[in-house]
Amino acid sequence: MTPSADGIPAWSLPELPAQPPLHGTVTADVAVVGAGLAGLACAYRLAERAPGRDIVVIDAEGPAAGASGRGTGLLGPRAGPAIDRAVRRHGPWAARRMHLASVRAVTAVLDLCRRLDVPCGLRPGAQIMATRAPAGLASLERQSLAYRALGLDVPELSGAQVRARVGVPYTAGLLHRTAATLDPAALTGALARACAARGVRFHGHSPLLAIRAGERAGSELLFPHGRLRAGQAVLAVNSAARSLGLPVGTVLPLEVYGLATAPVSDEAYEALGGHEGYALVDVLPMGPYFRPLPDGGLVAGGGTVTLPTGLGAPRLRAARERAWAWLARWVRSLHPELAHVPVTHRWSGRIGMTGDGLPVVGPVRGLPRVWYIGGCCGHGLALSVAHGTHVAATLLDDPEPGGPLPWHRPTAPRMPVHGPARPLLRTYLDALGRATRGAC
User: Which residue range or ranges hold the FAD dependent oxidoreductase domain (predicted)?
Assistant: First the structure.
């Protein structure tokens, strides 16, 4: 078996703009902390719409180093809870707006890729939410009924229709037509280069230590070797909000897992929907998923999430090995010709999860002219770009039509994740993962 590259995503790190560490005292009109898709989309829109503004992007490492460069490249619609739960929690009108906003977010990323001329393996293709477990079948039925009641174009697929597309024996599915797959690191790098071309300055290897209101106006951001004074600040820091003491509620860091395989045979690739660019996601919580790569291999993820806080390095390494091993077995079960396919890359990344499944995009209480973006709950490829664009429009006093959505809010619900509650949360996540893996 070909040895796998542990901890290294399947995506090559793109060419990036110069990003020296921040030293001394720096000033800017706008400081964007976080060089992932959300922060870069915000900086790009600001530089595009207000070319005279002095914009600085700062990151603890650099563009594409975090979740935006470690995703699995599924670009599909979803914002917040499943559509039937969204109807119960927010009402039909809001649930419909939420879904349509997520579809527009996918379209916006496709448009962005075309504008930037990104060589990122972009492949338009439908996304199938499917199941072969009774619990998943009930969930699909509830979602299908909700989509139909809201007049949304998400057709139901029979087992035969799913198998005709991906050749895996699933019982039923839902078809999201507006979807694609791409290399997330390439998109992030291209966005960083486009920002730099418009005059945005970058500082890397500069973790934010603290932020406070400025003496006169704006904010002062403190870094290991300097400080930055900015009239406005955007903190696209996801689950790092807790370490900074930001009052944005609980955005929980969860570790998720992915792997990539060597190219498979043409027969297996076609049978798994590769030539049409399909991606398949199991509808169960933490459900596994796969999608084809342009080179003939597969990318897969899901099945396990880990609460990394409080775990020592040996236990975290063991958890990663178990997650990767199960995911490799699941991939090899998809088609007879995958029984011995080599795994070429295994990696993990951190997502930000909230108690109600909704992101947090809003002003930070107690810090005038400071905004926070985080908590996309595993759906960040499209939503991150949309959130960054929304915050940029707000800073430019150019509000988007239609008014705020449920995730345009300053805080997420608080969750008891410290002290005695943390083992209980870890036990719950482990049990949910075992149930999903057993059904898949």
Answer: 29-393
3 state SS of 44: helix
Secondary structure (H, E, C), 87-134: HHHHCHHHHHHHHHHHHHHHHHHHHHHHHHCCCCCCEECCEEEEECCH
pLDDT per residue as tens digits for the range 20-45: 999 999 999 999 999 999 999 999 99
Structure confidence at residue 12 (pLDDT): 81
Q: Strand 298-306 vs strand 252-261: parallel, antiparallel, or unpaired? A: antiparallel
In angstroms, the CA 256 to CA 433 distance is: 11
Please state the separation of Cα 79 from the chain's center in Å.
Answer: 11
71, burial (CB in 10 Å: exposed 0-12, middle 13-18, buried 19+): buried
Short-list 258, 306, 298, 254, CA closest to 279:
298
Cα gap 49→62, rounded to integer Å: 24
Read off the CATH number of the domain in which 190 is found: 3.50.50.60
Domains: count for the chain: 1
Distance CA 385, CA 194 (A): 14
SS3 227: strand
Secondary structure (3-state) at 246: coil
Residue from 185, 267, 129 nearest 13 by CA:
185
Residue 122: what pLDDT?
Answer: 82
For the entire predicted model, the pTM comes to 0.95
Predicted local distance difference test score (pLDDT) of residue 4 = 56
From start to end of 1-54, where are the E strands? 5-6, 24-33
Q: Which of 184, 200, 203, 185 is nearest to 34 (CA)?
A: 203
CA distances from 86 to 16, 93, 103, 331 (A): 39, 10, 15, 31
- Which domain, by its residues, includes 180? 5-439
Ranges under pLDDT 50 in the chain: 1-3
pLDDT score for 2 = 42
Residue type, 349: G
